[in-house]
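Work Package 3 committed the consortium to producing structural models of liganded targets before the mid-term review. Because experimental data for this complex are still outstanding, the team generated a predictive model from sequence and the ligand definition alone, so that downstream docking and mutagenesis planning could proceed in parallel. The input record is reproduced below exactly as it was submitted to the modelling pipeline, together with the SMILES string for zinc ion.
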Amino acid sequence: MKIIATLIVFLSLGAVAQKGSKMESTISLGESTVKIIRQFGATNDSILFINVHEDEQTSIDAVEKYAEDRPLNFIRLAHLKSRNVSYQLNGKEYIVDPNRIFTAKGRKATLKKQSQFSYRAARAAKRLANSLLTHISHEKIIIAMHNNTDVNYTIKSYLPGGDEAENTADIHISEAWDADDFIYTTVPAYFTKFKALDLNVILQDNEQCVNDGSLSVYCGQRNIPYINIEAQKGHFDEQLKLIDLVMHALQEK
Ligand SMILES: [Zn+2]
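The resulting structure, written out as tokens with the ligand in place, is given here.
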């Protein structure tokens, strides 16, 4: 992995990252660069927030708002403010969805879907994936943050007959919450907690789910605890509330 520069900025001056500090690293993909911006929580903080779709601003804003009261571990990509990451190799343009690059099958499919496939382009996408995965381990609970805009994509997509039905092991639909604001997890115990709170929640079928290269699939394959807090674009208050409810639920034994 080629990391050009690692800068510790803002509050921290030393080599050891301190609570509330930020660190940036830069990955080069051909002639393009992608930044990974990392914020640090408390040293004993076992939760890592992650955002890979830079245009899903509501989700970023919600984490940053929550972090005002309680420093959080948070990593996110910074590229061109777009959902997808584009890069040039040998004069050709390649595009990937950064939430489809965590498995070989996913990298191939996203390159084909968004642009074209080449082995070199797939290796570059793998470098980007690995630079995110260095932050991810079994010691951390991953909370991925997303926003949806597609009117056809809601929690109902996970019901039998829906587009996402193959990925569903269990589902609870709340009457109190908008169908665009939901939790998706790989962990049965979390599903039970969130269902008890009457949140919209889906439990991923870690055995049968479609290998699309997303982070939930990667975590499901490796038993890394994963939660996605998904809200409609602009549903800032709802997404902030979901973060708060999830964080409190995780603190309970
Ligand atoms: Zn997203």
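Reviewers should note the following from the model. The domain at 3-251 is CATH 3.40.630 (Aminopeptidase). These observations will guide the Year 2 experiments.
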